[in-house]
Design brief:
By secondary structure, the chain is an alpha+beta fold. Among the domains are: 90 residues, Winged helix-like DNA-binding domain superfamily/Winged helix DNA-binding domain (Arc Repressor Mutant, subunit A), CATH 1.10.10.10; 196 residues, 3-Layer(aba) Sandwich (Rossmann fold), CATH 3.40.50. It is built from 29 helices and 23 strands. A hairpin with a 3-residue loop joins strand 12 and strand 13.
Length: 746
């Protein structure tokens, strides 16, 4: 941690302002301590004036005395007009009691215990591939999807809404305290929640969201103001603080391998680790209240109607309550006295669930090898109070040994893919979707699919074992993953991708030894004398199957890589246009051109029209190898899932063309499944590379290889941004020197 500037510390101690750009998490710890040691009550003229309480006894007393320290004016300060209240924290009695009662069903003890197996599976499924790969970003790949995933399990959010919540929350925090009204962030958030409410009322189920949306009082639904206040509070508090605390736990353990080993041997320490993390690094640095009367604390009178800041961080590190408060001690006997969950009537409604989540995270991590930080992490505030990590890049000490179980899984891996192929070809998932939640038994499936009962029963059992189906009464129904991705007509339907692999890709894999032995693709193509992407060699089936996979990956790219200055994108080898479509959806200022072969542009044009983006995305026919130059007039060039098809000389040739086509300051983005630097994985990138041996002259490359080629082409400011999509795990970005940079950030 950098040593804070003494002048900044002195200024912020005298004129405290948690929205000052110099008030960073590192600076905050020192400023908060100085304020606490200065006096029981301090005053700052910032934002019209505010009083600060920072000592444990005083902050706890204020939290308990809700009659004097009111939340009814909103605890976020300043606050854009037009933003609805957050339930229940922004309400005083008597409204508070009724709202809290409405919010309690999903976080009751019995409901939390019911969720434990699903939460544990979610945590295990997220951490396993990172540990197997041996490295990763524990914020992007674990803490964030874990927190949002638990929120989905808790209240019943759709997968689409889960995918949007983090970005919407980030935008809300960015503007809540700085804008003159809520128009820049609340309408978009409200639109997503409104769609969830509409869905819950149209198709009621057993989720909390469905119960709340359909709950009536005297025959009337809850007023919209109250309904959306509850839902948005769950969406924000239900993932934000969990994500931040999980991130802090992961970060601290990454810097203390000895503690990781102790937790494996002494799991009874795990609750103490969670409580001490909450005490030492409060995920929400402060809340505010407004006084309802004059109140005197430590000889200073705070007038009626004053805004009061409660510094949780300072209180949690008050030496009068916690000895050696800056030390991390998992055996600290009173760590649970921290105020991170609040106190009094506003004590966190989801505290029991949060503690369960932290315990599960620690238990699942303990099943894997010790890990360590591989890069420095940066912390920053959102809305001046939520402490966030930009990333937690780690490397595990060793990959898990395969063992016999792993070897048998590799040996029979083909069986899994072929079970999926058979179920997709026979229309199993579509039929079960028509049956609804009740599902169907083996006899019903056999009759409707036109097969005998024996194979129907065996196929159902196989798909259930793979997590594609779930038991429903006496039969089977689609599991959520199958319902989302394997039902024809759904937006993210991957059945065509499964069919494309079976018809177009897998025959070549049956001759993979030949490909490796001869260094020649084993995939049979109709016109061997022509390029692999010519119309005769890449059937329409290929593009139809690849489109949804590309769309899902494009969505992950748009969420993981920010291009704030990009206005004109050239998607080189853009295929069906999926990446251009998703990037334009994520950036309303962006216009794009898909540059590809004539027959591919026809496919892209149709997809662009279906997306309703023909006014922002065009197509341009050409051949990026045969044409002397790439089209100009663009400030950003995207090469997504392109370079793995070609060898190094052709890739260098293409990058040189990108350099010449870009203006000074322009950016090139390479999005791929990147092989790690030591070429030991990750599994998906390594096997995709072998797939290239089967079908192309290329392979999957490391970020360092791309960096070297980019530098040789003339680019600078080269960096790699990790993200996780189904067909890409990172992007290598580079800038053409000179001019005004388009800019990019993770």
């Amino acid at each position: 941690m950098a040593i804070p500037d003494p002048d900044i510390i002195a200024r912020l101690t005298e004129q405290f302002d948690f929205h000052d750009p110099h008030y960073t998490p590192d600076v905050a710890e020192t400023v908060n301590r100085e304020i606490r040691e200065k006096a029981a009550v301090t005053y700052s003229p910032a934002h019209g004036g505010m009083w600060i309480l920072s000592r444990y006894e005083d902050v706890k007393a204020a939290l308990k005395d809700h009659a004097t320290f009111s939340s009814g004016s909103g605890v976020h300060f300043p606050r854009a007009p037009g933003m609805p209240k957050f339930a229940p924290i922004d309400f005083d009695p008597p409204e508070h009691g009724g709202i809290r009662k409405l919010m309690s069903p999903p976080v009751r003890g019995d409901q939390v215990r019911r969720l434990e197996p699903d939460i544990r599976k979610l945590a295990a499924d997220l951490i396993a591939p990172i540990a197997e790969r041996g490295h990763g970003d524990l914020v992007a790949e674990f803490a964030r999807p874990f927190a949002v995933g638990v929120l989905g399990l808790l209240i019943g959010l759709s997968e689409q809404a889960q995918g949007e919540i983090r970005g919407l929350t980030r935008t809300l925090w960015k503007h809540l305290s700085t804008d003159s009204d809520a128009e820049k962030f609340w309408p978009a958030y409200h639109a997503v929640l409104a769609e969830e409410v509409r869905r819950a009322r149209a198709r009621p189920d057993d989720s909390y969201l469905s119960w709340l949306a359909n709950h009536t009082v005297d025959g009337e639904h809850l007023p919209d103001e109250q309904l959306y206040s509850i839902i948005v509070s769950y969406c924000i508090a239900g993932h934000d603080n969990t994500m931040n605390t999980v991130s802090r736990i992961l970060w601290h353990l990454a810097g203390d391998p000895d503690l990781q080993r102790r937790l494996k041997d002494e799991p009874e320490l795990m609750p103490g680790v969670a409580e001490e993390t909450l005490r030492r690094w409060c995920p929400t640095d402060r809340f505010t209240r407004v006084t309802t009367r004059d109140v005197t604390i430590g000889g200073t009178t705070i007038p009626r109607g004053a805004r009061v800041v409660l510094l949780f961080d300072a209180a949690n590190r008050d030496p009068k309550e916690f000895g050696s408060p800056d030390d991390f001690d998992p055996r600290r006997g009173n760590a649970h006295h921290h105020l991170s969950f609040g106190h009094g009537i506003h004590h966190c409604v989801g505290a029991q669930l949060a503690r369960l989540e932290f315990r599960i995270v620690l238990e699942e991590l303990a099943r894997h090898p010790v890990y360590r930080l591989s890069e420095r992490s940066q912390t920053y505030f959102e809305n001046g109070r939520h402490i966030m990590f930009d990333k937690i890049a780690v490397r595990f000490d060793r990959p898990p040994a395969p063992g016999l179980d792993r070897l048998m899984g590799i040996t029979t891996g083909l069986w899994e893919s072929q079970a999926l192929v058979a179920a997709t070809d026979l229309g199993l998932f579509g039929f079960l979707a028509e049956c609804g939640g009740e599902g169907a038994d083996a006899d019903t499936v056999a009759d409707n699919l036109g097969i005998e009962r024996r194979p129907a029963e065996v196929l159902l059992t196989a798909c259930a074992s793979l997590g594609l189906l779930r038991l429903s009464g006496d039969g089977y129904a689609n599991a959520p993953v199958a319902d989302h991705y394997l039902v024809p007509g759904k937006p993210d339907y991957l059945g065509d991708y499964v069919g494309m692999l079976q018809t177009y890709v897998y025959p070549g894999w049956m001759r993979v030894t030949e490909a490796v032995r001869t260094n020649t693709p084993s995939r049979v193509i109709p016109q061997p004398g022509k390029e692999i992407f010519d119309a005769e060699n890449r059937p329409t089936l290929f593009w139809r199957g690849l489109h949804p996979l590309s769309a899902l990956t494009g969505r992950a790219l748009a969420a993981g890589v920010d291009l704030p200055g990009a206005t004109r994108l050239l998607d080189v080898g853009g295929g069906s246009g999926a990446f251009a479509i998703e990037l334009c959806r994520g950036n309303p200022r962006l216009r794009a051109t898909v540059f590809d072969l004539p027959h591919v542009c026809a496919i892209a044009g149709q997809r662009i029209r279906e997306a309703g983006l023909e006014d922002r995305i065009g197509t341009l026919q050409g051949d990026f190898f045969q044409d002397a130059e790439l089209p100009g007039g663009h400030d950003t060039i995207l090469l997504s899932m392109v370079l793995h098809d070609w060898d190094e000389p052709r890739n260098r040739e293409l990058l040189a063309k990108c350099y010449r086509a870009l203006p000074a300051g322009g950016t090139v983005v390479i999005s791929e499944l990147l092989v790690n630097a030591d070429k030991t994985g990750p599994v998906d990138a390594a096997l995709m590379s072998l797939n290239m041996i089967v079908g192309t002259p290329g392979r999957n490359y490391t970020a360092r290889e791309y960096e070297r080629w980019l530098r040789d082409a003339g680019f600078d400011d080269i960096r790699t941004v990790e993200f996780q999509g189904p067909a890409a795990n990172g992007a290598v970005l580079a800038r053409k020197p000179g001019g005004v940079s388009v800019g990019y950030s993770a």
